[in-house]
Every structure is written in structure tokens, then in C-alpha cells.
Design goal:
With 115 residues, the chain is mainly β. Helix content is 11%, strand content 37%. The protein has one domain. The strands form two sheets. Strands 6-7-2-1-8 form a five-stranded antiparallel beta sheet. It has a five-stranded antiparallel beta sheet with strand order 5-3-4-10-9, with no helix packed on it.
Length: 115
């Protein structure tokens, strides 16, 4: 039996999602980048203790509490370190896990439940 080369490229389609890696990094998928971070380089993190939700707010200008979103050359993903945030709120990140996100129009942020 002969090998056959796989010639399809990766797709960046799919629902907006965020992964939290076992290293404490937030990884925003291509859908999140294209819909919410097209011309935005910074984000702020929020925590809702009542429902164990994380909020990520795209912001245009950097401030002392913002994170720089490092967007890949092709714009397929964006990453930033959230280690201190995760430790502060006792959010488990021993294993990499992905979460579907929803846009909260009222608050102007992406949100997802971790608990």
C-alpha cells in the first residue's frame, strides 16, 4: 500500500472559542479573532464569581490592566498569558480545555463559564 499525500489545508471555520492551556495561556480561535479582534490588540479579563464566568473585553488602547493579544501572522489565533488571573481566582488549568464563547452586547465582552 502506498502513502497518499494529504493536500487540504487547515480550516479556520467554526464557532468562536477560547482555550485555556495547561501553561495558563488564553488562546482565541480564528473566529474570535476575525469577529472581535480584527483591529484590536488588547484585552481585559473579568471574573464573575457568582456563575464562574470569565469575560474577555477587546479594547483598542493599552492600559495598566490590559493584556497584549499576540495574533499569529495569518491571523488564525491570538494568545495572551493569563496565569496570574487564573491563580488569583483559583481557576483550574492543569489540562488544556476549550470553551465556546458568547458575545455579551450589554457588557461588550466575550464570556464563558468555567465551573
Amino acid at each position: 500500500m502506498a502513502f497518499k499525500e494529504f493536500q487540504c489545508k487547515r480550516t479556520h471555520a467554526g464557532a468562536p472559542s477560547v482555550a485555556i492551556t495547561k501553561y495558563g495561556n488564553f488562546v482565541l480561535n480564528g473566529a474570535v479573532i476575525s469577529q472581535f479582534f480584527r483591529h484590536i490588540k488588547y484585552a481585559k479579563l473579568y471574573w464573575d464569581d457568582e456563575v464562574s464566568k470569565i469575560g474577555i473585553k477587546p479594547i483598542k488602547k493599552r492600559d495598566e490592566h490590559s493584556y497584549t493579544v499576540n495574533i499569529s501572522a495569518r491571523g488564525g489565533v491570538g494568545t495572551f498569558s493569563g496565569h496570574a488571573f487564573l491563580k488569583t481566582y483559583g481557576i483550574n488549568y492543569e489540562k488544556t480545555k476549550s470553551f465556546l464563547v458568547e458575545w455579551n452586547e450589554k457588557e461588550g465582552l466575550l464570556e464563558f463559564r468555567v465551573g
